[in-house]
Design a protein that fits this description.
There is one protein chain. The chain is about 25% helix and about 15% strand. With about 375 residues, it is an alpha/beta fold. Helix 2 links the parallel strand 4 (about 70-75) and strand 5. The two termini are about 35 Å apart. Residues about 370-375 have low confidence and may be disordered. This is Tungsten cofactor oxidoreductase radical SAM maturase.
Length: about 375
Amino acid sequence: MEHKFKLWDAEVTIKPKLDMKYLYIEITSRCNLKCKMCFKQYWEDEEGDMDWDLFLKTLDDAEEFPKLEMILFGGIGEPTVHPQFIKMVREVKRRGFALGISTNGTLLTDEVLEELVRLGVELIYFSMDTVPNVSGAITLGHLAAALTAEKIRKLVGLKKKHRTGKPSIGVEVVVTKENYTQLSKIARYLRDIGADTLLLSNLIPMAEEQINDIVYDGSVNMEYYVQELEKMAHYGLYVKIPYFELKSERRCEFDENNAAVIRWDGEVAPCYRFLHTYYEYIFGRKKKVNAYSFGNVREERLSDIWRSRRYTWFRFIMKNYAYPSCTDCSLRDSCDFVTTSDVDCWGNEPSCADCLWGRRLIFCPIPQHMYGKFF
């Protein structure tokens, strides 16, 4: 199979491969919390759970990818609210896949934690807005953070009990003006309770009242706080730090790591950004991001969707960054293309030209950097 394309005056021939490395499965779009900075509070989509037959079909399709390194229960929902969560975990591990889970942790019982360790789940990322005894809570705050921290402590104890290094434990913290001065304290706290990794990400405002909460618009000098975080590398905690200012460099971790995301209803998106429909604010400028799918695994094989002409061309353009940059374009305040993510001024569909993930301001749990250290 090969696809031929025209790129300016050149002819491009691409022979798509089954080279997907990470497959995110949004087994549910529901959540038990209502964090104010989360996409869920602002999107236009209905909520739902992936049904068991579709889940099995997805795993069947995933087995066709010889380079697949990990399946991750992620997306925008909270995986543990799915009524068949632990059954799904067992099925993934029964088939021999490496498994990562992104969770707030609040619903993980002692019995479930024990089974996750016993099954050899490779990676668990906990999301926290703050941590206990550190000021600056920005959502449900210290109560939820204390509960999540207790789950981490129990997980660390279970790893010692079973004499295993799995799962690797990561924590994702969203940086805002309410907590940026506490980042080094947060890092030390997480190190002390046994976390392996701290993943920092910036806030994408979803509502007008959040616009001034960001720290990457030049309103905050983050140099001192970054230096303090970098010191933690000498004390056993891996810290992944985003940029805190807009740079010309673009690097999409979803593209670079050959990842795809399957929504709870089977739609296949290239990344988290296109998984749902919502409004975002890019440096104060309102933009509508519309969900975008390259196919549905309920109707097609994932391998056929991955190698389709449309998806193949999208990955080629994105990986070679052959698209414009709306974010720092001098015409952005008068251009119609910047109002939605549907298409850019070069004709690429959907448009990644305003994506803050690609500017490394926003991070999601991509486990590639953890290999070799924990696996």
